[in-house]
Amino acid sequence: MDRLSIILTLVTGAMITGGLVIIAFSFGYYGWGPIVAALVIGLVLAWPAAWLISRRIKRQDPAWDETHVEHVPSPIPQPGAPEV
Protein backbone atom coordinates (compact mmCIF):
# COMPACT_ATOMS: atom_id res chain seq x y z
CA MET A 1 0.00 0.00 0.00
CA ASP A 2 1.26 3.40 -0.91
CA ARG A 3 0.85 5.83 1.98
CA LEU A 4 1.83 8.83 -0.11
CA SER A 5 -1.04 8.19 -2.53
CA ILE A 6 -3.49 8.02 0.39
CA ILE A 7 -2.53 11.55 1.41
CA LEU A 8 -2.48 12.76 -2.19
CA THR A 9 -6.00 11.42 -2.73
CA LEU A 10 -7.43 14.26 -0.63
CA VAL A 11 -5.57 16.90 -2.61
CA THR A 12 -6.24 15.45 -6.06
CA GLY A 13 -9.92 14.91 -5.29
CA ALA A 14 -10.33 18.53 -4.26
CA MET A 15 -8.43 19.80 -7.30
CA ILE A 16 -10.34 17.65 -9.81
CA THR A 17 -13.73 18.45 -8.27
CA GLY A 18 -12.99 22.17 -7.97
CA GLY A 19 -11.73 22.35 -11.53
CA LEU A 20 -14.82 20.59 -12.87
CA VAL A 21 -17.14 22.88 -10.90
CA ILE A 22 -15.32 25.94 -12.28
CA ILE A 23 -15.61 24.56 -15.82
CA ALA A 24 -19.32 23.85 -15.34
CA PHE A 25 -19.94 27.35 -13.99
CA SER A 26 -17.96 28.95 -16.82
CA PHE A 27 -20.22 27.18 -19.36
CA GLY A 28 -23.27 28.58 -17.57
CA TYR A 29 -24.43 25.43 -15.78
CA TYR A 30 -25.58 26.63 -12.37
CA GLY A 31 -27.35 24.29 -9.99
CA TRP A 32 -26.93 21.16 -7.95
CA GLY A 33 -26.74 18.76 -10.88
CA PRO A 34 -23.38 19.92 -12.26
CA ILE A 35 -21.94 20.18 -8.76
CA VAL A 36 -22.99 16.63 -7.88
CA ALA A 37 -21.69 15.35 -11.23
CA ALA A 38 -18.33 17.06 -10.63
CA LEU A 39 -18.23 15.60 -7.12
CA VAL A 40 -18.84 12.07 -8.38
CA ILE A 41 -16.24 12.40 -11.14
CA GLY A 42 -13.76 13.86 -8.65
CA LEU A 43 -14.32 10.98 -6.23
CA VAL A 44 -13.89 8.38 -8.96
CA LEU A 45 -10.72 9.93 -10.41
CA ALA A 46 -9.04 10.94 -7.13
CA TRP A 47 -7.43 7.59 -6.27
CA PRO A 48 -5.99 6.78 -9.74
CA ALA A 49 -4.66 10.32 -10.13
CA ALA A 50 -3.06 10.23 -6.68
CA TRP A 51 -1.50 6.84 -7.42
CA LEU A 52 0.00 8.12 -10.68
CA ILE A 53 1.35 11.25 -9.00
CA SER A 54 2.84 9.18 -6.17
CA ARG A 55 4.55 6.83 -8.63
CA ARG A 56 5.97 9.75 -10.57
CA ILE A 57 7.32 11.43 -7.43
CA LYS A 58 8.98 8.23 -6.32
CA ARG A 59 10.32 7.45 -9.80
CA GLN A 60 12.03 10.85 -10.00
CA ASP A 61 13.54 10.60 -6.50
CA PRO A 62 17.15 9.37 -6.84
CA ALA A 63 17.20 8.09 -3.24
CA TRP A 64 14.06 5.96 -3.63
CA ASP A 65 14.51 2.18 -4.03
CA GLU A 66 11.52 0.79 -5.92
CA THR A 67 12.68 -2.84 -5.55
CA HIS A 68 11.43 -2.96 -1.94
CA VAL A 69 7.81 -2.98 -3.14
CA GLU A 70 7.93 -6.69 -4.07
CA HIS A 71 9.21 -7.71 -0.61
CA VAL A 72 6.27 -6.37 1.41
CA PRO A 73 4.72 -9.13 3.57
CA SER A 74 1.30 -7.53 4.05
CA PRO A 75 -0.86 -5.07 2.11
CA ILE A 76 -1.63 -3.19 5.34
CA PRO A 77 1.43 -1.19 6.43
CA GLN A 78 2.61 -1.16 10.01
CA PRO A 79 2.65 2.36 11.48
CA GLY A 80 6.38 2.27 12.21
CA ALA A 81 7.36 0.44 9.02
CA PRO A 82 9.30 2.14 6.21
CA GLU A 83 7.39 3.50 3.25
CA VAL A 84 6.97 1.08 0.34
UniProtKB/TrEMBL annotation:
The chain crosses the membrane at residues 7-29, 35-53. The keyword Transmembrane helix applies. Keywords: Membrane, Transmembrane, Transmembrane helix. This is CTP synthetase.
